[in-house]
Every structure is written in C-alpha cells, then in structure tokens.
Amino acid sequence: MQVEIPEYAVLDEVCVDPERTALVVVDMQNDYVKQGGSLLVPDAEATIPAIKALLDVARASRMRVVYSQDTHRAGDPEWTIWPEHCREGSWGWEIVAELTPAAEDTILRKFRYDAFYGTPLDHLLRLWGVDTLVICGTLANICVHYTAASAALRWYAVVIPRDAISALESFDLEASLRQTAFVSAGRLTTVNGVRCRESVSV
C-alpha cells in the first residue's frame, strides 16, 4: 500500500527579528554525520553547507546560537532502541568540525530526543527575550521534530529550513515537516528563504 504525504506549504521567505530569534543546531555530531559514525544519517553530511550558511547569517546579525549535543553514558536505555551512539567523551559524541561552535554560542547536552527535556533551554530563551526558533540539524523526525513540537507547546514560533535537516528515510522527513506545519503552526522554508529584519540573508 502506498501512502501519500498531504501537501504542506514551503514559504519562499520567512523574515525573523534577530534580536528575538535563536538558531538551534540539533545533534550535528560525528556519530550521525560522518562516515564511521555508529548511527549514520545518509544525508546529514550534505546539510553541512546549508547549516554553515545559517550560522553565518545568525552570527552576522548577532542572533543567539544554541547547539544541542546528544549525550549518553553506559546503561542508557536509549541504547536498547538504537545502536550505541554519542557516548559522552567519544569521537562520535563530538560536534562535527565544520560546524564548531563559536565562543559565544551555547552548547546544551541533552539526554532524550527533545532539546528542552532536562536542559535549561527554555530558561535561557526567555532570559534572552527570544520568541522564535530557527531549527536545523538531524534527525528530522526525531530530535528536530520533538524539539520543534516542544517549542511550539511553549508558544515559541518555529521556523524550519527544509534543506538544513536530514532523516534516515525521505518519508520520515516529509511526514515530520507536514506535522510541524499542520500541528505546530511551524513555518517551513529553505536556507535562502531565512531573512533577518535588516535585510541580512543567506
């Protein structure tokens, strides 16, 4: 049986206020992105240039940048669902070199799919006066999706550039985007469509 994904809108342009927006880079770590990683996502490495472009825009406009870093230790029950991955302190746990965080960026170790769960992310965003999140990274239907849904439940506006996320299967990516747009009122666009208020663009 074939299942078709219902249509969803991809906007040509989404304008954000950099003073009230944060770029959230989800789990761009060696185990997911690089050959030899224990839970390799086929298209994750191909999204690095797109994510770098988003980082350039964020830093040029003084937008806050947050990295989530999936973090596990021996005995983590998640390893009964997935192969062992992102063991704290290992090569696979490290953020890929091409996207090395800057000194002013924030890195949050997370222990479940959702970057809000068990982290100070919500507290920091409110402290900074942020009400909009541009979310990129991997995996589209897991950590990106649950982070976006959790943000929406907290009434943050969500923007996802679809060419800056990746999934194990194309169906998973498309289904997640449709859910984000339909259930979470997320705005979907491309990297080139993300514009800052003062005409800063990718």
Brief characterization of the structure:
The chain has 202 residues and is α/β, with parallel strands linked by helices. Helices cover 26% and strands 20% of the residues. The longest helix has 14 residues.
Explain what the structure shows.
- The protein is an alpha/beta fold.
- The chain contains five helices and nine strands.
- It has helices at residues 30-33, 48-60, 121-128, 140-153, 170-183, and strands spanning 14-16, 21-26, 64-70, 106-110, 132-138, 157-161, 165-166, 187-189, 194-196.
- Strands 2, 3, 4, 5, 6, 7 and 8 form a seven-stranded parallel sheet that branches. Strands 1-9 form a two-stranded parallel ribbon.
- Helix 4 links the parallel strand 5 and strand 6 (157-161).
- Helix 4 packs parallel to helix 5 (170-183).
- The model has no long low-confidence stretch (mean pLDDT 95).
Terminal Cα separation, in Å? 40 Å
Query: Looking at the structure, what is the overall shape?
Result: globular
Stretches where pLDDT is under 50 for at least 5 consecutive residues are none
Instruction: Write down the overall mean pLDDT.
Output: 95
**Percent helix range:** 25-40%
Order of helices and strands: EEHHEEHEHEEHEE
Radius of gyration in whole Å, from Cα? 16 Å
- Counting DSSP E segments of at least 2 residues, the number of strands comes to 9
Q: Main β-sheet: number of strands, strand sense, barrel status?
A: 7 strands, parallel
**Strand portion, in percent?**
15-25%
Task: Name the structural class.
Answer: alpha/beta
Determine the number of helices (DSSP H or I, runs of at least 4 residues): 5
